[in-house]
Amino acid sequence: MTRNVLRPAFWRGLSGKVLVLTMLFVLAGEVLIFLPSIASFRLNWMENRLGLAEVAVMAAAASPGGEVPPEAARVLLNGTGAYAVTLTRNGLPQLKLNIPSPPLHEAVFDLRHQGAFMAVSDALSVMVSAPRTIAVGGTPLHLKGSYVEVVLHETMLKQDMLRHAGNVLIYSLMLSLTVAGLMFIALNRVFVRPVRHLTREMLRFAQNPENPASTIRQSGRLDEVGVAERELAAMQADLQSLLQQKSHLAALGLAVSKISHDLRNMLATAQIISGRLSDVDDPTVQKFAPKLIASLDRAIDFCAATLRFGKASEAPPRRERFDLRPLVEEALETAKLEAAAGMTLVNAVEPGVEIDADREALMRILINLARNAVAALAAMPQAQSLAKISISGWRGHQGVTIEIADTGPGFSQRAREHLFEPFQGSGRAGGTGLGLVIARELVEAHGGGIELVASGPAGTVFRLSIPDRSLS
Ligand SMILES: Nc1ncnc2c1ncn2[C@@H]1O[C@H](COP(=O)(O)OP(=O)(O)OP(=O)(O)O)[C@@H](O)[C@H]1O
Ligand SMILES: [Mg+2]
């Protein structure tokens, strides 16, 4: 049985995400490199033109008389790709080469004052806008103290820049694919594969958690994955010992249930026989027979309660809507059988309150709580006339709330500490400590809850809520 959790779709899996993210990051890095790269390409290109212009100017200066014939000027300018070249010193024109009627320039770029950001934005604008006629000026390399200016058209610059940008783009793509590929392989090895191994091992354990051989096979790594593996191994070992303990307890519980069952039958026989003893006239027998019968009664009750609790789970409640008041009346009647004379048992449920519950289960809950109250009141030294048990109930928005209140002494310290714990909480002779546990199980099977609202010298109040079916 292999579930499909091991391999999610490639793009949803860690591998796919790693691949895409790496490519994006490398491309983002490439953009950061690309912008300064085209800016410096443009500046270099223009400096190059200035250098050529300088050579042309120097050649022209060498001509006799400083006068450059138009034919010679055309040849010299051809070499620089410019319309005109001007050499200035201290603001005064020294030499000028130009084709006949050169076009006017639309923008001037002085290479002596080029900021980094301006260079980037100028370079971008060359690439996206229509080419213009521009003038580029700067300090010549050899003619110190002078200023040389070239008037040229941007077409060639734009073409060269686009070619350069294309090369950078291809290079970036190749770089990002290579880096992404390498990162992919590396991360797959150090991260994705170990995580898959962990998942596989978890599944293997889940399929057979009780088998010691299904605990994780550790890779012995020293990194975080290794720590996770070790922690998982420790957790699996704990879980296994817990499971083992539970299955021992379950076996023990079964054995106890069987013993209780047979013991109850034997006790029932003993009870019938001891019932006959009451017919014997002997005063000693008359004195002890009722006590014997009472102890047998309690023993039988104990066995029956243990048997009930030993059942793996209660059957799901068979719910129906019915009038709560008569059921409370019935529960109080039963509890009254054990109540001492003088105790008052009050049914304070509002008439007409309907509850959505399993009759039998609710009866058991109420009898358990009412019997507890009776037992608590019976243990009070005070006048029994003050002893009172009252059950009230009302309907709220989502269901019914029931309160069982008594004027008893409240919970003992021990009973309070072990509230709702099986076999632990009993604070009275003959009690098994299962009543409240069973009551809570039954209430929770209805989707409701039970709580001890108050307990002290003034008495004890339990509140339970039973939500209606559609809302539970
Ligand atoms: N109304 C109450 N007033 C005071 N103490 C109570 C009250 N209800 C329960 N207790 C305490 O809580 C303990 C646990 O109650 P629980 O019903 O679980 O077990 P039990 O009554 O001892 O035995 P059984 O399983 O026969 O009901 C009781 O022994 C008692 O000490
Ligand atoms: Mg009880």
Describe this structure in words.
The longest helix has about 55 residues. The protein has three domains: about 160 residues, no CATH class; about 100 residues; about 150 residues, Heat Shock Protein 90 (2-Layer Sandwich), CATH 3.30.565. The protein is built from ten helices and twelve strands. Strand 1 and strand 2 form a beta hairpin. Helix content is about 55%, strand content about 15%. The strands form three sheets. It has a five-stranded mixed beta sheet with strand order 2-1-5-4-3. With about 475 residues, the protein is α+β, with helices and mostly antiparallel strands. Magnesium ion (MG) binds next to helix 8.
Mean pLDDT comes to 86
Total strand segments: 12
The major beta sheet can be summarized as:
5 strands, mixed
If strands are numbered along the chain, what order do they take across the biggest sheet? 2-1-5-4-3
